[in-house]
Specification:
This protein is mainly α. It is built from 13 helices and no strands. The longest helix is centred in the C-terminal third of the chain and has 29 residues. It is globular, with a radius of gyration of 18 Å.
């Protein structure tokens, strides 16, 4: 499930960057995309009942996802998909720190070693990209915010997954997130020209169904089974997978340094195979 999620996320960076470069405004894209995704989950989720004691956590998760999407679309508008993907390699560091701070997980030295090795692999992938990396500091900082908010969202959602199905949580959280995006992006959405051509809409359909609908179910289920820190550690594969897609689909070159980085990322995931003890 984690590997399928990583593959779809890797494609999503390139696809979303393409969509934003071919006519969609950032907030308009996020609003319409999450509107379709929320509608799909609401149609298939069945019961939407959430216990009153859990609503505060649902609202926190939706708020973090809202901030995540704002930073995500503007990061992709201002910098390259490769740069955003590489910076998302910091996910396990943020997830570990947040999980430790809120008492959700107790992280052994083995995890921190795995995170360090894996993050070192991300650094090698970045070095191997050379001049193709963007120098836009604002876009890079937004990508860091994307990583941090997604890690926080993953930590917030983990306790809910012990009590509710992925479909129910996805329906409720995505619907709340969409309301926030609708308010924030109303101006751009109202002014958006939707005559964008079939290629953009085909890419948009993939961005909704694959990286958003399918991966939400896979990601939630994986979080429940292995914990947020180990799950986000697997996300470190994303930069290398994105580079492989670039080679296959865009005929780009992948360097030996990037291959070495991918090997280190995989080694970090192997080191983290042992379950992380959860606090009571």
């Amino acid at each position: 499930m984690l590997l399928a999620t990583v593959v779809l996320w890797a494609l999503n960076l390139t696809v979303s960057r393409y969509i934003l470069l071919h006519g969609f405004e950032p907030l308009s894209y996020a609003t319409v995309r999450y509107g379709f995704a929320a509608a799909i989950f609401l149609a298939v989720a069945g019961s939407l009942r959430i216990a009153r004691a859990d609503w505060w956590l649902v609202v926190v998760a939706a708020a973090l996802l809202f901030l995540n999407q704002i930073s995500f679309v503007y990061a992709l508008e201002r910098t390259t998909a490769a740069t955003v993907g590489l910076i998302l390699g910091s996910l396990p560091i943020f997830a570990g720190l947040i999980g430790l701070a809120v008492g959700l997980e107790r992280l052994p030295a083995r995890f921190w070693l795995a995170a360090t090795v894996s993050f070192g692999g991300v650094a090698l992938v970045a070095l191997g990209s050379g001049r193709d990396l963007s120098g836009d500091l604002g876009g890079d900082l937004l990508a860091v915010a994307t990583s941090a908010t997604w890690a926080g969202y993953s930590v917030a959602i983990a306790p809910l997954m012990r009590r509710y199905s992925p479909l129910r949580i996805s329906a409720v959280v995505l619907a709340l997130t969409w309301v926030g995006l609708l308010v924030a992006g109303f101006g751009q959405t109202a002014d958006q020209d939707f005559s964008l051509g079939w290629k953009v809409w085909a890419a948009f359909a993939f961005a909704v169904v694959g990286p958003l609908v399918v991966t939400n179910v896979l990601w939630y289920t994986a979080l429940h089974r292995v914990g947020p820190s180990r799950a986000t550690l697997a996300a470190n594969l994303q930069p290398f997978v994105a580079a492989v897609f670039a080679v296959i689909l865009l005929d780009e070159r992948i360097s030996a340094v990037q291959v070495a980085g991918g090997a280190l990322i995989a080694a970090g995931i192997v080191l983290a195979r042992r379950p992380v003890r959860s606090a009571a």
